[in-house]
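Long-time lurker, first post.

We've been arguing in lab meeting about whether zinc ion would sit comfortably in this protein at all. Half the group thinks yes, half thinks no, and nobody has a model to point at. So I'm putting the question to the forum: if I give you the sequence and the SMILES, can you give me back a predicted structure of the complex? Inputs are below. Any interpretation is welcome too.
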Amino acid sequence: MISRTPHVLQLNADYTPMKVMRWERAVELVLDEKAVTVVSYPGRFVRSTSLAVPWPAVIALRRYAKARGRVRFSSRNVIARDHFTCQYCGARPRFPDGRPDRADLTTDHVIPRAQARDGVVYLPWSKRWVNVTCWENCAAACRWCNTRKADHTPAQANMPLRQYPRVPTQFDVLRLALARVGSVPEEWRDYLPEGWDLLAEAEREPGQILSVS
Ligand SMILES: [Zn+2]
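Top reply:
Settle the argument with this. Predicted structure of the protein with zinc ion, as tokens:
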């Protein structure tokens, strides 16, 4: 099933998937000859007064672009990187329709700000000093865990992390984008690594709504 204004999957010149984009941008890239349409949505056309072009479903860049892989650091993106899941107790607050309920999640400084020296903290697991507020020291936590952990490290609070926080990769970006569009269009499946559509669906998986109050 496709939504009324379906998104477009952009591949690099070597056909590795890069990102999900709005159709307007994709058509622009094709008309500017920066990308080619690999697959289009059958029977759909993007029309203007002077032309009608097949509606692209998958496009590929003509020239190889170095994947930027940079994700803007923000609380929202930390929570998204962590699959909208508390990294301490595993709570996954969700609305009844399966969408993540961000209101119950916070960003926790794993090594707390109160234990920082000149704004930096030591991460025992990676044996590195980092800024207190960065990808590697921030994790999604439900309100209850965040309050309980307070100004302690995971070891001091006896609250082990499910995984150590890391800088998100280009793959994380794509995974999140797929989750945002919901169902992955049939036309994209041949261009995504095996099982990625399932991953995207798992992000939205209903039925695991945990109470975190
Ligand atoms: Zn929790």
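For your lab meeting: The chain has a mean pLDDT of 85. The CA atoms of residues 37 and 59 lie 4 Å apart. Whichever side wins, do check it experimentally.
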